[in-house]
Amino acid sequence: MNKGALLCLLLAMLPALPAHSEAHSESRHLLARALSAAPPLTLAASDRQWLAERGRLVLGSSRPDYPPFDINNSQSDYEGLSADYAGLIGEQLGVPVQVRRYPSREQALAALRAGEIDLLGSSNAFEANDAHLALSLPYADDLPVIVTRKNQALRDGDDLAELRLAMVDHYLPIQAVRRLYPRARLELYRSTLAGVAAVALGQADAYLGDAISTDYAIAKGFQQTVKVDHFVKAPASSFAFALNQDNLRLLQLVDLALGRIADSERLNILRRWAGGSTSLLLDRRLDALTQEERDWIAQHRQVSVMINTTLAPLSFTDAQQQPRGIALNLLERIGLRTGLRFKVVESESFEEMVEQVAQGKANMIGAIGYGEHRAQRLRYTRPYMISPRVVVTRRDAPPLEPQQPLKGLRVALLRGSPLREGLEREYGELRIVEVENPLQLMEAVANGNADVALGSHINASYFINQVFKDRLRIAGLYGDEPALATFAVGPAQPQLQAILDKALLSIPPDELEQLVSQWRTNAAVSDIPWRNYRTLALQVLVLAALLLAGVVFWNTYLRKLIHQRSEAQRALQEQLALSRGLLEQLRQAKDDAEQASRAKSTFLAVMSHEIRTPMNAVIGLLEMALEDSQHGHSDRQALEAAHGSALGLLDLIGDVLDISRIESGHMTLQPVACDLVALIHSTLRVFEGSANLKGLVMTALLPDSPTWLLVDPLRFKQVLSNLVSNAIKFTDQGHIEVSLTIAPVDGGMFEITLQIKDSGVGISSIDQARLFTSFSQVDGRQARQGAGLGLVISRELCELMGGELNMNSIEGLGTQVAVHLTLPGAAPPGTETTGNALIEPGAGPLQVLIVDDYPANLLLLDKQLRSLGHQVTLAEQGKAALSLWQDGRFDVVITDCSMPVMDGHELTRQIRAREREANLPAVRIIGVTANAQAEERQRCLDNGMDECLFKPIGLQALKACLPLATEAPRASGFDLAQLRHLTQDDDRLVKRLLEQLAQSSAEDLQALHALGDNPSGAALAPVVHRVKGGARMLKVKGVRQDCEALEQAIAQGQPVEKGLAQLRASLHTLELELRQSLSAIEGSN
Prior knowledge:
The chain is α/β, with parallel strands linked by helices and about 1100 residues long. The protein folds into eight domains: about 15-140 and about 240-270, 3-Layer(aba) Sandwich (D-Maltodextrin-Binding Protein, domain 2); about 145-235, 3-Layer(aba) Sandwich (D-Maltodextrin-Binding Protein, domain 2), CATH 3.40.190.10; about 285-385 and about 485-530, D-Maltodextrin-Binding Protein, domain 2 (3-Layer(aba) Sandwich), CATH 3.40.190; about 390-480, Periplasmic binding protein-like II (D-Maltodextrin-Binding Protein, domain 2, 3-Layer(aba) Sandwich); about 535-665; about 670-825, 2-Layer Sandwich (Heat Shock Protein 90), CATH 3.30.565; about 840-960, Rossmann fold (3-Layer(aba) Sandwich); about 975-1085, Up-down Bundle (Four Helix Bundle (Hemerythrin (Met), subunit A)). The protein contains 37 helices and 39 strands. Strands 1, 2, 3, 4, 5, 6, 7 and 13 form an eight-stranded mixed sheet that branches. Strands 14, 18, 19, 20, 21 and 27 form a six-stranded mixed sheet that branches. It has a five-stranded mixed sheet with strand order 10-9-11-8-12. Strand 23 (about 410-415), helix 16 and strand 24 form a beta-alpha-beta unit. The protein is elongated. The relative contact order is 0.04.
C-alpha cells in the first residue's frame, strides 16, 4: 500500500474515534439547584455567535462519584456542588449544559484533551499539573485535612511516619503528597467513601482529603467512628473547572460567568451540600486571638479536661470505655479551630473535678453548671447549652402542690449544687439528700431515698427514657432560671478562658443547636457502661436467676421500640433540618435588610449633621446681611434669593430625614391640645405673600369658633404647608381654596376633612400614579422645583396619624387634595402666666460666653449677639471655655454640643458641678447642635442645659431664648434710612451727624447716671425733657416712649426707679446703634 492510500485510510478512521470513545460514556441530565440573581452576561456579538455555533456546553463526570461535588445517585440525573455551578455558567452564557459520565477519571481527562467534552468539574492541583489543561476561576476551597479514628490522636504537623495514609487516586499529585509525608505509606482509593471507610474499619491509619468531601462522607455514616484530626499545613488551593488548554476563548467566558456569582449564592451552595460544618469549612482558624493567646496555645498544645462519666448526653463513657457526648464533640471542633489537643480525665464527682481544676492539677472541666458559690475558684466560659430545670418524681407519686411544690419533701441534689441555698431560704423544713453524680440523683428517687430530684431537663429526660422509663417522670419545671452548661477553667487560666470563649462565639448558633440535637435524639449514645449502675447491678445479680428470661424479653422489646423511635426521630430530624435551613435563610435576609436600613439611617443622620453645621453659618450670616441691607448697604434682592435658597436646602435635608425616619419606623407623633382653626390660619398667613405675588386669590372656609383637638401641630402644619405650597407652585392664575369641616363621632372623637383646591395646571392620571413615590415628580416646566418628597411625606404622616390623603386632579382644570383624620377632642388649656412674663427685665446687655470649634459659627454668633447689644467672649473648645467661666462672670453660656477634647455636654456637667460645690447661682446654658432630633434636645436638657437650639439659628430664635435669662436692651427704633433722607444721602454729612448724635446720647446717659438711682422729680424732669426732644427729632420711638412714661410718673408722684433704669437701657441701646451705623459707613468708604 502506498503512502497516499495509507493517509486516506487514516483520515477516514478519524471521525470514528470520538464516537468509539463516547460509546463508553453515558448521557446525564444536569440537575442544578441554584438560580442566579444576576441577569445573563452581556456578551460581544462575536462571542454570542461563537456560542450559538457550538449550541451547547458538555460537562464531564466519571465513576465513582466524588460527593458532594459530583453525585449520580439517580438513574438519569447529575447533581452536586459542581452541577450547581455548571448550571449557573450555562444560565449566564445562555447555552444549555449537557453531561457525559465516563467509567473512570482517566477516561474523562482523555475525553477533555480530545475535545469530546468542554468542562470537567472538581479539578484541583492534580489537573493543574497537566500541561494540556487549564483551570477556570475557583468555585470552592480545597482545604486538605487528616482523618483518624475517634480514639486516635495525631499531632498537628505529624509526618505520619510508617502509618498507612489513604487518599483518593486523583486528589493530589503523588509527588506533592510525598513531599508532605515522606515517611508515610500512601495507599490510593477510587473514592472518598472508600478512603474514609478504610480508616473506620482499621484498614488504614489516616485519610488525606479535602475538607468539603471529607466532612460530607463523615456526616453520611461515620460520625461515631472517625473524626477530622487536623488541617494540613499546606499552601491554599481550590476546586475549579478544567478546560482544554487550546480552548482559551471558552475559558475566558467561563471565568466571566463564575465572576458574576454573588458571595451569598456561593454560601448557599456550600450550605446545601456541606455535611453540617459550614463555618468550619469557611474559616478554619480563629483570627480574633490575641498574640498572648496564640503564644499560650503554642506553649500548651495539650490541655487536660475533666468530664463526669454520668452526665449523659453531655459527657459519659460508652460500652468500650471511650469518652463521648456533646462536650467532647464540641471540644473536637474547638481543637480544629485553635490547634489545641484535649486529654480527657474521667471522674464521677463534680466536687472532685472542681478541686482538681481549682488546684491546677487539671486545666478545665468539660461540662458543669454555672454557680456563684464556685465563681471564686473557677472561671466560667460563656454557656454552650441551656436546659430548663425540672422536678423528677416517681411515676406513681401524687401531683405536687402548685404554691410550694417541695414543702415537706426529701429533695435530691448534686453535692455543691447552687440551688441548695435558695431552697433552704424558701423551705425551712426541707430535707436535702446530696449525691455525687446525675445517675445517683435519679437512683435516689427511684429507690425511695428521696421524694423528688432537681436537675436539668436534657439530663433527666435522657435517663428517664433510657433507664427509668416506667419508674420516674418529670413532674414540672423548677424556677425561672435555666441550667447552663459551660466550660470551666482554673483561676490562673484567663488565656484559656478567652480562647474557649472566642472559639464558642465562632460557632454559629444553628450549628451548635444541630450538634446538641444529634445527641438529644440519637439512641446510639445510650450505651453508658454498667460500672456506673452499681445499685441497679446488685439488684439484677440478686434476681438474675428468677428474671433472666423476662430481662431478655424486655430488652428485645425495648430495642425494638428504641429502633422504631429512632427511625421516627431521624425522619423528624431531617424535616427539622430543612425547616431550620429555610428559617436561617429568612433570618439572614432579614438581617441584611435591617443592616442596610441602619447604614442608610446612620449615613443620613451624619450627613445632616455635617451639612447643618456650615449651613448654620451661611443662613445666619445671610440673615445678618439682610438686617444690614435695611440701611441700604447691600443688594437686598440678591441676599433674599440666597437666603431663600439656603432655607430650601435645609427643608430638603429635613424632608430626606423625615422619609428615612418614616421608612425605619422611628417617626413618632407628639399630640397636644391645639386649636385647629387657629393653627390653619397661622399657617396660611405664611403663604399670603407668595399667593399675592402671583396674583392668586387664597380663601379659607373655616369654622368661626375655636376647635380644640388632640393633634401633633408640627406634623399637621407640615402636611398643610406641603399641600398649600404645591397649590401655589402649580397655579399661575385663579384661586386657591382651603376648607375645613369637623363632625363629631362616638367616644369624644371628631372626623375632620381638610380640602385644598386650586385652579392650576392639574395632573394627568399617569403622573398621579407615581407622584406618591419618593423623588418622583410630574413632567413639565415646573418638574424640577422640588425634590419630589412633599406628597410622599404628607401621605405617610396622614397614615401615621390614623388617616388618609386622597388626590383628584384633571389636567388643565386644577387639583383637589383631601385629608381625612379622626382626632380626639381636647379641653382648651387654662390661661396661666408664663415664666417669661414673671422675669424682670435686666438693665443692661448680657455677658455671653460662646463656645464652638467651627470658626464660621463663632463669627456668626458673635455678630448676632453684638447686633442685639450684648457683650461677647469667644472660646474654641470646652476646656478653654471652662477656664473663662471660672475667671469671669457670665449671664449666658452658648455652647456647641459636638466638639473635640471636651464637648458641650461635658462642659455643662462640669459647670453645674462647680456651681453646686461653690453654691453659685446657675448660669443659663444654651446648647447648639446640628442633630435636629427630639432625642438630642432631651439629652441636652438631661445634662443640665436650659435650652437646646437646632442649627441653623436665626436671629429671632436666638433673641427669643435670651429673655429667659435676662432681657437684652430693646431696639431703640433708630432708622438710618430716615437720616439719609434728611441729608439727601450725603455720606459725609451722615457721618458727622452720627458722631454728634452718639456723643450727645453718651452725655445724656452720663447725666442720668449722675442723678443716682432715686433722684427728685425736679432734678430729673429737665434731663428727661431734653432727651425726649432729641428722640422726637430722630423719630426714635423706643426712647421717646420711655421718656413720656417717666414724665408721667414724675407728674403723678410715683416711684421713678424702674422707669429711670429703662430709659438708661434705651439710651445705651441707641448709642450702640448709632456707633454701629457709623462703623458701617466708615467700612463702606
